Amino acid sequence: MDAAPQQTSKPSEATDAPERVALTAEAEAVVRRLTEQHGPLMFHQSGGCCDGSSPMCYQLGELRTGDSDVLLGRLEVDGVDEPVPFWMSASQFAYWSHTHLTVDVVPGRGSGFSLEAPEGVRFLIRSRLMDDGG
């Protein structure tokens, strides 16, 4: 059994809300590389099938978010100037509201429109139930 991935990112907003999302060191390295290529980034997890079943990485603002989306956190990554917001569709959040998400990266083909697709890797979500402390 694999050990749980070590999370390295921290949400940028100091709130009383528990941390809901983080990145592994490997995912942070891909975020740094993609930021150098494309500028500020964002994640969105739609919860749909196919491409929507994994987190999609876009240039910041490329995907319009609205009332049907929930901002889970803004991820700070060493070497990246702007925190990376992580959005999730409200319907998906209804299922995962008690879950902490860790964005990891593995070899493979990324989702069609996600920026990591040409890199030979794809982002994926690892999850665990949150306790009272997050």
From TrEMBL:
Species, as recorded: Streptomyces marispadix
InterPro entries referenced in this protein's UniProt entry, alphabetically: DUF779
Domain of life assignment: Bacteria
Protein name: DUF779 domain-containing protein
